[in-house]
Amino acid sequence: MNRFVTTDSLRGLFAAGMSDMYRQEVPLYGTLLDIVAHVNATVLHNDPALRQSLADMDECARLDLERHGAVRVGTASELALLARIFAVLGMYPVGYYDLAAAGVPVHSTAFRPVDEVALRACPFRIFTSLLRLELIEDPVLRAQAQKVLQRRQIISERGLALLENAERNGGVAEDEAQEFLAEMLAIFRWHSQAIVDIETYRKMHAAHRLVADVAAFQGPHINHLTPRVLDIDAAQAEMVRRGIDAKDYIEGPPHRREAILLRQTSFKALEEVISFPDGATIQRGTHTARFGEIEQRGMALTPKGRALYDACLHKARAGEHPAGHDHDARLRKAFRDFPDDPEDLRQQQLAYFRYVLTQKGKAAAHAATGTTLPDWLAARWVQAIPITYEDFLPISAAGIFRSNLGDGSRQGYDSHGSRAVLEAALGRKVIDPFELYETIQEKSLEVLASHFAAMRA
Ligand code: OOG
Ligand code: NI
Hints:
It is an enzyme of class 1 (oxidoreductase). The protein is an alpha+beta fold. The protein folds into three domains: 4-299 and 390-426, Roll (2,3-Dihydroxybiphenyl 1,2-Dioxygenase, domain 1); 301-348, no CATH class; 353-386 and 432-457, no CATH class. Helix content is 47%, strand content 16%. A five-stranded mixed beta sheet has the order 3-4-5-2-7. A hairpin with a 7-residue loop joins strand 3 (92-98) and strand 4. The longest helix is centred in the last third of the chain and has 24 residues, at 433-456. The chain is globular and about 85 Å long. The structure holds 2-oxoadipic acid (OOG) and nickel (II) ion. The site of 2-oxoadipic acid has 12 residues, from strand 2, strand 5 and helix 17.
């Protein structure tokens, strides 16, 4: 009997394989992992309560592991292929991110596990962007890039056969898992040889650095990985202290007592040596694409909370110095309007919560049971636990792109997103992230309702 590897452990192995590959390819990424390990150990040492709650959730062993990575593809069929691979790994497209307005000619989705059990087993996600060549002005260059992209084959024949096997059989057999993973990882490895000559590369680069990054190479190299850090301000300071060329500021909300959404920063992309084909010989040049990022996640916000977040962010950024010199102070000031107390956030329905029975609730006698959530909370039979944000933020993502593309001042494209185009490429609709959080919250309430109904019966 040939058994299947579970989807969750396959995804875990894939993430670990990606991490090993990237650490070998980008040694500075290893340094970033050291910083993260050190900061996390220090935070846990100084905060026994946090240590205990992470231990309760079985989180300690994988604390420093990668939470996401990012790739960029050139055509609809490449995106469709990645969607098939990620589905085998239990990752589905969640959310639509339009980055054109921020001057980045791509639109994106995040492939990630969607249910709570899978997220807990391995939350690894891949932020996946599709190049929008239609936004490139020069028709000759556009056609040239299209031709290169149409010709390239990002998966090996063997890889495709293994993928088809997995789809046909409904899983990856144990004795094929290693080869399957090796073939899939190979899609995302770095190629230090370009597939276009240096002239073409330069033209692509001049149109937009992303065109060169996607169309001048054999495959969609992983461009960064992102572990979880417990104190992102400390990690940013440590990068600077070690003389690492860090991003100017942390993207997302400011430091708060109650962390919301997602904060991220990175070391800037490295300039790497590339050889370009030139007739029978090669020419040397460089390309700048790969970096290392860190993230700190907080609670998921409701549409109402998200609207308030967007408004605060907008206020902070209006009139900001382009290099972000005054970023942190402006951000802190603008976010004074955003409640920073969990009970305020809950009562004003700004964030999502999971409602769970407490020890006291479990022990409670049925006699005095109230019938509504406020009764249960007041009696401390039920506790509200914030739901962690598992997605991305378009303005932050654009900021990460821009600081690694080295063109901070670029104007936005005069274009609207085209979710339908991305969905057509995927062959399905992207999942609405708000619905996922809402469902987790609602389910937790249903479980409580039936518990208390049974107690009253
Ligand atoms: C993706 C940038 C976005 C994030 O964490 O927001 C991203 C890219 O550079 O390809 O990864
Ligand atoms: Ni990222």
